[in-house]
Backbone:
C-alpha cells in the first residue's frame, strides 16, 4: 500500500499516524509527484493533518526526547525515499519495542537511518562552511546555495545567532525558497522567477556594495597565498571541497 | 587599496608554515554584536595542498629580530618585509567574517623591537575587535615568549586559543638552528597561561560571572625533519607537553626547506616529510583517543615509526598474542585497538551486539575497514581456523591489498585526522 502525501513533514507524520490507525504496517510513503512518475499498485491519498502529525511528534518526543524526535525530521530532509521508508519502520519499532532499538546497528533500517543522519549532518555542516555572502548596496548580505539535501531549516539558527547584526538572505535555488533575516527574525521567502534570476547573478541586477569586489579580491589573494605549493595534494583537496560546491565559492 | 593586497600576500605567505588552523573548542556566544564560536570548529575552505582554511592566518609583521635558520622570516633572509596597521587587520577580519569566508583570526607576528612591544600591538588588535567591533568570533593569538605576565593575562581575556611554538622537539635541536632561543622561554609562558586557565575555571565554579579565559586552551607546534630527532624523541616531547601544560593540540609540521644558506638543514627542493608527519599525527591520536601509552608504540630501542604501515597496525603485528579479538565479547577499549576499526565503529559494534551476535556482513556495512581488520577479529560467522597466520604474512597481504587499491584508483582506507 502506497501512501501519497504532499511532501511536507506534516504530511509525512500524518502518513505515520494513518498507518497506525489503519494497521497498515507495510505502508510506503511517497509524494504525489513521485507517484506520477511510476505505475504502482494500491495507493491512498493522505491529506496533511497537523493534529494527527502533532500526536505522532509528541509521541516521539515522549519516547526519545526533543533531539531524538528531531532526528526523524533531519532524516526526512534528506529527501531520500529509502530513508523515508526506513524511518517509517523505525518509528513503528520505537513505539512497539522502545527507544533502545535505535542502536540496533546490525539492522538494515537502523543503520541506514544512522547513515542518513550523518549525511544530512555533513551537508548541514558544509553549508555553514561554504555559504559565501555578497554585500548589496543596501546592506543586505546575499548567498545562493544548492545543497544536496534540504538543510536550510537546519542552519537557520546558526546564521541568525552568528550574524545577528546584519540582514541576510540565503536562497536555495534547487528548492526555490530561502531564508531572510531582517536583524529581528528569520522568515521563509519564495521569489518570483525574475527575482531568482536577479539573485543568481548579483552585480548585474542587484547592485553590490562598492567595497564588495575589493574584499572578494583580497579573499582570493589570501586563499592563494596561504597555500603551500610543495605540499600540493589535489586528491585530498577534492575530497574536502568536491567540485559541485565550487560554483558558489569565489576562491575557486 | 593595492598596498593592503601586497601586505596580505607577504604576511599570509609568512604565516602559513604555522599549521594550526583549528577553530574548535570555544563556546563564545554572540552577546549583542557579531559572531560566535562553533564548538566543533568549521573549515571554510581548503587549499590545494589539502589543508583546511578556517582562520585568517596572518603575521602582524614579518620583521623579526631573531635569526632562526628554519624560519622564512629570519633576520638574515632576503625577503620583502611588511607590517599591517591595527586598522587593516581589523578591517580584513571583519569584512572576511561578515561574508562567512572565515571562522576568525589567527594572529602571529615576528618579534620587532622586543617581546612586550610586539605583544602590546597584538593585544591592541584583539581589544579593538572585541570592544569596538563587538566581535565574538574565534581568535587564536600567539603568546610572545618574554612578554610580561600582565600583558599575557590581559590577552587571555580576549583570545579563544593561545599558542607558543616549541619549534624543535629537543633543546639540542633548537640550539642547532636557533641559538638565540631555548625551550625554557617557551615553557614558562605556557605554564603561566595553563595556571591561569585552571584558576579561572576554579573561580567559575564559585563565582557566577567569571570572565572566560582562553576557553579553547593552548597548543604548540614542532618542526619535523629539520633536525635529526627521532620519532620517539618527538612523541616523548609531545606527551610531556600534553601532560604538563594540558595542551589541546600539538602540531607536527614537516619542514619545508626555506633556507639554502644553512648546511645543517635539508636544502630547498627536498620534499617535505609528509608521510612521517602523518604517522606522527596517527600516533598522537592513538595516545589521546585510543588509550595507548607511548611505550607501546615507541621506545628508545624502537625509535622510529614505520612509514609503510600505520602505527596501530604496526603495534598489532608486534603483539599477535592479544589477537584475535572477539567482536561479540571484547570490551570497547580492546575493539578500538583493532587495525581497521575506529572509534565510531567501535561504539556501534558495542551497542549493536546487544541485539544479537554480529556477523561479517554487518561489520562491513557499519563501515569498518574489513580487509585490514579481518586478520585480527572473530565474529559470529568466522570459520574456526586451524592455525594462526604468521604476522609477516598478514602484513604482506595487507600491503598488497593497499597497493592493489592504489593502482585501481580506489579510495585508500586510512585514518583521517582533519
Residues:
Amino acid at each position: 500500500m502506497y501512501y501519497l502525501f504532499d511532501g511536507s513533514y506534516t504530511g509525512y507524520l500524518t502518513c505515520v499516524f494513518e498507518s497506525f490507525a489503519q494497521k497498515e504496517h507495510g505502508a510506503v510513503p511517497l509524494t504525489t509527484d513521485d507517484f506520477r512518475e511510476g505505475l504502482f499498485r494500491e495507493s491512498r491519498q493522505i491529506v496533511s493533518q497537523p493534529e494527527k502529525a502533532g500526536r505522532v511528534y509528541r509521541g516521539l518526543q515522549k519516547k526519545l526526547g526533543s533531539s531524538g524526535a528531531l532526528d526523524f525530521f533531519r532524516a526526512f530532509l534528506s529527501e531520500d525515499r529509502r530513508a523515508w521508508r526506513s524511518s517509517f519502520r523505525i518509528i513503528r519499532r520505537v513505539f512497539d519495542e522502545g527507544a533502545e532499538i535505535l542502536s540496533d546497528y546490525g539492522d538494515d533500517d537502523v543503520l541506514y537511518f544512522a547513515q542518513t543522519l550523518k549525511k544530512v549532518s555533513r551537508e548541514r555542516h558544509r553549508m555553514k562552511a561554504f555559504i559565501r555572502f555578497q554585500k548589496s548596496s543596501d546592506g543586505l548580505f546575499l548567498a545562493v546555495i544548492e545543497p544536496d539535501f534540504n538543510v536550510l531549516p537546519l542552519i537557520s539558527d546558526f546564521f541568525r545567532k552568528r550574524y545577528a547584526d546584519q540582514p541576510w538572505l540565503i536562497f536555495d535555488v534547487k528548492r526555490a525558497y530561502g531564508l531572510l533575516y531582517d536583524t529581528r527574525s528569520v522568515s521563509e521567502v519564495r521569489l518570483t522567477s525574475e527575482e531568482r534570476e536577479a539573485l543568481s547573478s548579483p552585480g548585474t541586477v542587484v547592485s553590490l556594495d562598492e567595497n564588495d569586489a575589493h574584499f572578494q579580491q583580497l579573499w582570493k589573494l589570501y586563499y592563494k597565498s596561504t597555500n603551500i605549493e610543495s605540499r600540493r595534494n589535489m586528491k585530498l583537496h577534492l575530497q574536502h571541497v568536491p567540485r559541485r560546491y565550487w560554483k558558489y565559492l569565489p576562491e575557486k | 587599496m593595492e598596498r593592503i593586497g601586497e601586505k596580505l600576500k607577504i604576511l599570509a605567505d609568512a604565516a602559513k608554515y604555522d599549521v594550526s588552523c583549528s577553530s574548535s573548542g570555544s563556546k563564545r556566544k554572540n552577546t549583542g554584536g557579531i559572531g560566535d564560536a562553533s564548538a566543533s570548529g568549521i573549515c571554510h575552505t581548503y587549499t590545494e595542498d589539502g589543508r583546511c582554511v578556517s582562520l585568517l592566518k596572518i603575521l602582524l609583521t614579518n620583521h623579526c629580530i631573531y635569526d632562526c635558520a628554519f624560519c622564512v622570516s629570519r633576520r638574515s633572509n632576503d625577503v620583502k618585509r611588511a607590517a599591517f596597521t591595527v586598522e587593516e587587520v581589523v578591517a580584513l577580519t571583519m569584512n572576511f567574517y561578515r561574508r562567512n569566508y572565515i571562522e576568525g583570526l589567527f594572529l602571529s607576528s615576528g618579534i620587532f623591537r622586543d617581546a612586550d612591544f610586539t605583544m602590546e600591538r597584538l593585544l591592541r588588535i584583539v581589544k579593538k575587535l572585541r570592544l569596538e567591533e563587538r566581535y565574538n568570533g574565534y581568535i587564536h593569538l600567539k603568546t610572545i615568549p618574554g612578554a610580561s605576565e600582565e600583558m599575557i593575562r590581559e590577552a587571555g581575556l580576549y583570545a579563544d586559543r593561545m599558542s607558543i611554538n616549541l619549534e624543535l622537539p629537543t633543546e639540542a635541536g633548537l640550539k642547532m638552528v636557533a641559538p638565540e632561543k631555548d625551550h625554557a622561554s617557551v615553557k614558562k609562558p605556557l605554564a603561566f597561561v595553563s595556571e591561569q586557565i585552571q584558576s579561572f575555571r576554579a573561580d567559575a565554579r564559585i563565582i557566577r560571572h567569571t570572565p572566560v579565559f582562553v576557553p579553547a586552551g593552548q597548543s604548540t607546534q614542532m618542526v619535523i625533519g629539520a633536525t635529526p630527532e627521532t620519532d620517539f624523541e618527538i612523541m616523548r616531547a609531545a606527551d610531556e607537553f600534553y601532560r604538563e601544560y594540558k595542551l589541546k593540540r600539538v602540531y607536527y609540521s614537516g619542514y619545508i626547506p626555506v633556507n639554502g644558506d644553512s648546511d645543517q638543514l635539508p636544502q630547498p627542493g627536498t620534499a617535505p616529510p609528509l608521510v612521517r608527519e602523518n604517522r606522527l599525527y596517527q600516533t598522537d591520536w592513538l595516545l589521546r583517543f585510543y588509550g595507548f601509552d607511548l611505550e607501546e608504540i615507541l621506545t628508545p630501542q624502537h625509535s622510529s615509526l614505520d612509514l609503510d604501515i600505520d602505527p596501530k597496525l604496526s603495534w598489532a603485528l608486534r603483539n599477535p598474542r592479544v589477537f584475535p579479538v572477539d567482536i561479540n565479547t571484547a570490551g570497547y577499549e580492546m575493539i578500538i585497538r583493532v587495525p581497521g576499526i575506529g572509534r565510531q565503529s567501535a561504539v556501534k559494534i558495542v551497542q549493536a551486539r546487544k541485539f544479537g551476535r554480529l556477523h561479517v556482513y554487518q561489520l562491513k556495512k557499519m563501515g569498518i575497514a574489513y580487509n585490514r581488520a579481518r586478520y585480527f577479529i572473530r565474529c559470529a560467522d568466522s570459520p574456526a581456523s586451524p592455525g594462526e597466520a604468521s604476522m609477516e604474512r598478514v602484513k604482506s597481504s595487507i600491503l598488497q591489498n593497499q597497493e592493489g587499491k592504489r593502482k585501481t584508483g580506489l579510495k585508500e582506507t586510512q585514518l583521517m585526522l582533519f
Observations:
- Confidence is low (pLDDT under 50) at residues 409-418 of chain B.
- Chain B touches chain A through 60 residues (CB under 8 Å).
- The beta strands of chain B are 45-46, 52-53, 55-59, 104-108, 138-142, 161-163, 218-224, 249-254, 325-326, 377-378.
- The first strand of chain B starts at residue 45 and ends at 46.
